[in-house]
Every structure is written in C-alpha cells, then in structure tokens.
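2024-03-11 09:14:02 INFO worker-7 job=invfold-0412 stage=load source=structure_tokens
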C-alpha cells in the first residue's frame, strides 16, 4: 500500500533551459532559433508549409537528443523516495523520463513521437527525421506529436484530475503564462502546500499556503527539497 503523500509537479521550459534547450521567453526578437513561431508551430503553418515545419522539429529533435537531464530533473526523481510524484510537463522533450521519473504526463506532446495528421491515435516513435511522404497506416502524412498553438490540449482534463487530489503542488520553471496549463494551479485543494520555483517568479495570488523560491531550477530544487523535509 502506498501511503506516501501525492506530489504533483508542473514543469515548464525553464527546467529544460538549463540542459541547453532554448525557451520561448528567452527570445527577444520574437524568433526561436531564427524561426517565427507563427510559421512553424500552428496548424496553419502545417497547411501552408509542412516542409518548413518538419525541418524545424527535426532540428529541435536533434537538440533534444543531444541534451542531458540536469540536477533539477534528477532532484525531482530523488523526491520519489518520500512522495508519490507525478510530473505534469509542458515540455516536449524526454528529459524527465531519461532522468528516471516514474510518472510523466506531457501536456503539449512529445517530440520523439509522430502521428497521422488525420488520426491522433495512430502514433509511432521517431527514428531519425520525419520526411514529407512518410505515411501512417491510414495513408496520411506523419506529423510531429506536438500540440501546436491554436490546437486543443487533450491531456488537460486528466492533468486537472491529477492536480485535484494532490497533497503537495509544485510549479517549476514556468512563467504560468501559457493556458490552459497555467490554470492547473486553480484545481488544487484549498490550503495544500504549494511551491513556485523559477528564476523570475510569476505573479501568483489567492493561495494561503504558498512558498516562492526565486532561483533557477537546478538551484531551486535544493531549496525545495529542504522546504519539503518538514512534510516528509
């Protein structure tokens, strides 16, 4: 029987940034590695220029493969010794899994998977790059398994259910500006311990049991673990 307290951790781009993966909010010119987001990360972009979209995600996938989990990823794994930890991540990389986290829910898809552009249930692991002309079983072009801007977030209801039964809620490495993910904070039970860890703390209000740690994830994980010792 698992009598550990349930900890839910919402992670964002900030935790992966320390592994060398670029974030949206680090961009000062509205571009991401030279790409305009409207041209590569929307359904309209896919319809307009699928080759450009594939090039962008093939490049990003190569960057993810080269990246390694950092101390923040590993620190969250270590917390599984004392807590029943579920990671809800906005990130499309697999760094949580490679670090060893047992339960990871990806809100915005996974860059190491591809699916039919017509049937989201036809999903496959990616080996190498996706090319134009690569087809799923239904004959449709394969696309990255990514939730683009303007698309529904199919895992958000499950994420909300998981959040609603948390004994402890942690936000790490996210600006809390991307919805519906940012709204998960409001699905927690009243008065549970809530921790927000980020190098630039986002505005958070209406929580009576809130601890804020202004630090990069790799530093904040140490402070977070110290704070959590009182709850173990």
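2024-03-11 09:14:09 INFO worker-7 stage=emit residues=232
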């Amino acid at each position: 029987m698992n009598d550990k307290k349930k900890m839910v951790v919402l992670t964002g781009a900030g935790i992966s940034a320390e592994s060398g993966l670029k974030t949206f909010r680090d961009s000062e010119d509205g571009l991401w590695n030279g790409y305009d987001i409207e041209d590569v990360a929307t359904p309209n972009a896919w319809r307009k220029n699928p080759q450009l979209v594939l090039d962008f995600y093939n490049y990003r996938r190569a960057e993810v493969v080269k990246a390694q989990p950092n101390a923040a990823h590993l620190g969250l794994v270590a917390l599984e010794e004392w807590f029943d930890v579920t990671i809800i991540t906005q990130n499309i990389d697999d760094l949580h899994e490679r670090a060893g986290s047992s339960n990871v829910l990806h809100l915005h898809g996974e860059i190491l998977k591809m699916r039919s552009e017509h049937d989201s249930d036809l999903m496959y692991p990616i080996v190498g790059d996706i090319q134009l002309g690569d087809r799923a079983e239904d004959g449709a072009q394969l696309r990255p398994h990514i939730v683009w801007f303007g698309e529904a977030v199919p895992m958000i209801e499950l994420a909300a259910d998981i959040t609603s039964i948390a004994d402890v809620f942690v936000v790490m490495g996210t600006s809390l500006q991307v919805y519906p993910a940012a709204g998960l904070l409001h699905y927690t039970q009243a008065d549970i311990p809530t921790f927000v860890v980020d190098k630039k703390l986002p505005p958070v209000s209406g929580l009576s049991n809130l601890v804020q740690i202004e630090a990069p994830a790799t530093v904040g994980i140490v402070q977070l673990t110290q704070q959590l010792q009182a709850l173990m």
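2024-03-11 09:14:09 INFO worker-7 stage=report msg="Residues 22-66+115-146 form a domain with the SIR2/SIRT2 'Small Domain' fold (CATH 3.30.1600.10)."
2024-03-11 09:14:10 INFO worker-7 job finished
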